UniProtKB/TrEMBL annotation:
HTH araC/xylS-type domain boundaries: 234-330
Gene Ontology cellular-component annotations: cytosol
Pfam families (alphabetical): Arabinose_bd, HTH_18
Domain of life of the source: Bacteria
Species name: Pseudomonas borbori
Name of the featured protein: AraC-type DNA-binding protein
Keyword annotations: DNA-binding, Transcription, Transcription regulation
Ligase keyword on record: no
Amino acid sequence: MLHAHLTTLHVVALILELFADQPELTEPLLAGSGIQAGDLASGERRITRTQELQVCANALALRADLGLQLGRRLHVSSYGLLGYAALSSATFGDAWRLLLQYPALLGTYFKLDLTVEDELAWVGAAEYRHALALERFNVEMCLASLKLICDELLGQPLPLAAAQFAYPQPAYVARYASSFACPLQFDAARNAFAFPAEWLQRRLPLADPVTHLEMLERCRKQNAEFTTRQAWLQRVRAELASHLVEPPGLEALAQQMHCSPHTLRRHLQELGTHYQELLDELRFERAKTLLGQDDWPICRIAEELGFSESASFRHAFQRWSGVAPSRFRA
């Protein structure tokens, strides 16, 4: 996948909070992500999915049930305007239809769906296409967060009838009970949890038609702006990615994007990034891929990424990841 959608530092911040009693782990947790501890202080900072997943992988090596723990901390308020629009919906079913209408604002790694089978409503997470080694982690985080959202929308725990997971039972299965107090099935055909479909008709305790209409309009505008900017940013990244050996400068890139350098710089700034940062992200992603292939010597990787000297590449990679290329490869 060429373009990794931008996201906030929310999950990264939650991970650092989980390990707050071990400040010496901050640097190892951020290693290889290109994220600095000081970035957490900026509410405008945006990172790629690749950067977020790198921090998740670092933390997962320290805590196997990380996905469940993070999911139980991703409240409905974590989803911004969309979360508040859901809270003010008339019924539980209305809230779910709204959440599924704006997947870009929900920021999930999955395609979510809500289906009714017999008398049960199933919330499912499918079509995961990211770091495969993190699939179970992401399923746990996603479904645990969705269950928490259900409870918060209703103002009471949603009774579950069943939960299914398309992977083997983990060693820490006992910790699933905090989110899924129901019969569990592993090695199933899907990742989903079920509840009595009649709950979809429940009126929400914070339902407010005036607030809901206002939040709904804001969600529409935010979604339109978000998807337009993401499509534009994908074009920028595609142009840079296809010319990593000889990357175009800001002016040449602006010409390719049919805008002025000032406009390009302003749009990137509004997205929380800039030209050099995008170029570094693409080079870093490509470098990690090539370092995973033993038949690519460091000097050849440096050339592939547009560095005139191997030493320049080594210095840049150290800055991006916190470790030397040879150590990363090892």
